[in-house]
Amino acid sequence: MRTRPTRDDTRDKLFEAAARVFEDQGIGGASIEAIAAAAGFTRGAFYSNFASKDELIIAMLEDHVEQSIRRNLDLLAEHTDLDDFIAALKAMERSRRDPLGRAPLLHMEMILYVARAEKRRPELAKRLRARRKLVADILQGAQLGGPNRIQDPSWAAAVVLALEDGFRLHRLIDPDTTPADNFWRAIGDLRRAMGLVSG
């Protein structure tokens, strides 16, 4: 018995197809027709879900942030100790349903593409604030032990995200001098400087 795909299934297929087409043709050069065809849909099916390519991109970025928040909250529920949480985060595999989690260069390109349109920047700001709140909640909720708790989790979250984004960009530009573990090394150094870990 054949069943029609759900709206979520259609969106997921369009996200995956768009990621492939964007990587092959570039975001600016990719057409709605090419994205729909790569997903196995008609142009009409695309427009029944998204009004434009820009709206698709915003939805992909939103989906990426939502999946990231969900994964991190699930881990935090299992690991209240910050060291345990960080170890679990390092070991966590990227979700197969998150194309931007698997393609950091495309993720960065999409952010810059949206940021070029001033009217779209509030959409990005909303996602950035959600990421900051997640990290701040993790820092505030994790049991750091002793009197040396983070005084301003929101500021610490902004620093953590700036480090993550910066090292991601540096690794894409110059992977030979930017090892994959640089972000985690920087987090370890930061925690030691703040007296949050021993050694």
UniProtKB/TrEMBL annotation:
DNA-binding region per Swiss-Prot/TrEMBL record: 31-50
Keyword terms, alphabetized: DNA-binding
UniProt domain HTH tetR-type: residue ranges: 8-68
Domain of life: Bacteria
Pfam family, one: TetR_N
UniProt-recorded name of the protein: TetR family transcriptional regulator
Organism of this sequence: Bradyrhizobium iriomotense
Species lineage: Bacteria, Pseudomonadati, Pseudomonadota, Alphaproteobacteria, Hyphomicrobiales
